[in-house]
Design brief:
The longest helix has 15 residues. The strands form two sheets. Strands 2-7-1-8-9 form a five-stranded parallel sheet, sandwiched between helices. Strands 4-3-6-5 form a four-stranded mixed sheet, sandwiched between helices. The protein has one domain: P-loop containing nucleotide triphosphate hydrolases (Rossmann fold), CATH 3.40.50.300. The chain is globular. The protein is of the alpha/beta class. The N and C termini lie close together (12 Å). The chain is built from seven helices and nine strands; from the N terminus they run βαβββαββαβαβααβα.
Length: 188
């Protein structure tokens, strides 16, 4: 496979996107591999360079931007960058696999605009903002302020759903996994 397919998964926090992506990656017959993002932030906890992220210092990140090494990138906060290196696509395609992105809505649509024929952009939508908030609370990983921030951000992210190829409503995880599998398999 010289050039495989690209699968963009974007969604608000608490939608189940990462769970669906992990499920798809475990389905060997789909021949998928995960695109590891680059970031200028420091590793958190047990994060590993080259597995969780490619950790770059700010200067290195900016140099790669100037050298056009990124497929897409964003400065989330001052000097806090995230992006997808073009070399990630090359690495995964060299393995004969298709690329899966678990990425924010803007980055996902940016990838789709660059590879319109090769990309299936899937927006994973929670059944409601109330259910999404309930899921975030049940995780017990975020402060009250962080949960409210994520809910507010979700309202903005939901406005982008119409720009994706498919909106996958995750109100039943088992059904959503099967629908995601079918979407990916049919696109390949």
């Amino acid at each position: 496979m010289e050039k495989g397919k690209l699968f963009v998964f974007s969604a608000p926090s608490g939608s189940g996107k990462t769970t669906i992506v992990r499920y798809l990656l475990a389905q060997e017959e789909l021949k998928l591999d995960f695109s590891i993002s680059a970031t200028s932030r420091a590793p958190r906890g047990a994060e590993v360079d080259g597995k969780d992220y490619y950790f770059l210092d700010v200067e290195s990140f900016k140099n790669k931007i100037n050298d056009q090494k990124f497929l897409e990138w964003e400065e989330v906060y001052a000097n806090n960058f995230y992006g997808t290196l073009k070399s990630e696509l090359e690495r995964i395609w060299a393995l004969g696999k298709h690329v899966v992105f678990d990425i924010d809505v803007v980055g996902g649509l940016n990838i789709k605009s660059q590879f319109p024929e090769e990309t299936l952009a899937i927006f994973v939508k929670p059944p409601s903002l109330e259910e999404m908030e309930r899921r975030l609370r049940n995780r017990q990983t975020d402060s009250e302020d962080k949960i409210l921030e994520r809910v507010a951000k979700a309202e903005k992210e939901l406005s982008y759903a119409k720009d994706f190829d498919v909106v996958l409503v995750n109100d039943d995880l088992k059904v959503a996994k099967k629908e995601a599998f079918d979407l990916v398999a049919n696109f390949i």
